[in-house]
Amino acid sequence: MPFFRKIITVTTRHEGEVVNLTRQVATVVRESGIQEGLIHLFVRHSTAALTTIEYEPGVLSDLSRALSVLAPDDADYAHNRKWGDGNGRSHVKAALVGPCLTVPVTGGELSCGTWQQIVLLELDTNAGRDREIVCTVSGE
Amino acid sequence: MPFFRKIITVTTRHEGEVVNLTRQVATVVRESGIQEGLIHLFVRHSTAALTTIEYEPGVLSDLSRALSVLAPDDADYAHNRKWGDGNGRSHVKAALVGPCLTVPVTGGELSCGTWQQIVLLELDTNAGRDREIVCTVSGE
Amino acid sequence: MPFFRKIITVTTRHEGEVVNLTRQVATVVRESGIQEGLIHLFVRHSTAALTTIEYEPGVLSDLSRALSVLAPDDADYAHNRKWGDGNGRSHVKAALVGPCLTVPVTGGELSCGTWQQIVLLELDTNAGRDREIVCTVSGE
Asked: Partner of B90 for a Cys bridge, out of B47, B139, C66, C131, CB 3.0 to 4.6 A?
């Protein structure tokens, strides 16, 4: 069974940014030459996460608000107190959404739904970060 | 390494419905003939999600309430304002739970825990939807 | 494509415990002999979950508080009323975080970020549990 790996790197600009990775991931699928299989994505950072969502500004701001219910900006974070960091909330959100996503490949293409985009959530409070997403395509 | 694919389609009836997919997924595992491996599940929609849970009515209603903490019915959703839709909360919940799940296959069977069922969460406000779950079994 | 399976068992001591599995998972990767591929982890229980996080006591307590926003200790759980259990909140948290995680293997090692540890969340209210994590390594 063939196996293909590639790393996508994206530079994010601000906390709460949602990066639409769908096009780049679809390109990796095509480069792999795999027709039927799976693509696994993993973000190698503890303050970013991967999921799928309709890439529409309204939905994205609604998601951001929901994450703030879990980890409000103004809560008293033990992580912040200990390290003088301001990103306690970033770690919490990232752990709950999760770092990985696996999507089917059919007919040599990503098999997402019509309104279902693959996104990176930049959750850190520090801007201008390079984020690595390890892509692994397997199948036949 | 063998590889097997099948699509399960379920018709949901109402928002908040939790569909127990365990039996159908176990059937796909048996049809695949794979003894040791993994089954990956992916729901191809942006307002539904997959997870595991004890399929007991009390737990299911407790889960529904927890999701409403994240995305309350009466919040002011930017998605709803923009599109006249009522399903802003559905998108948010689906993005947080996630569209995919991978479960081990051992001895030709699903290897879930005793109280651990595979479920689809219907999160959309519109009833009567067909939901496609792409199943991919790999292994040996 | 080679394929390797091993079960890790950990004994947890209390609700809210976060077990750092990274070293044990790295050992499984080395035992597999697989150089490039994926390791899939699945916890076979409905009141435990897997994710990645920076294993720092402050962050871990911040995560615990965020989970309590979703499923507060003192909420009225239908599961508890029906079964006389006290672990309604445990089921809810586990279903939202999820039972599985897949991490890339590169150069025969786990490919996590520097501050990104693999953890088991013990969410049950009953202490002293044995938790099985099924590990599946595939690749080449």
From this structure: B47
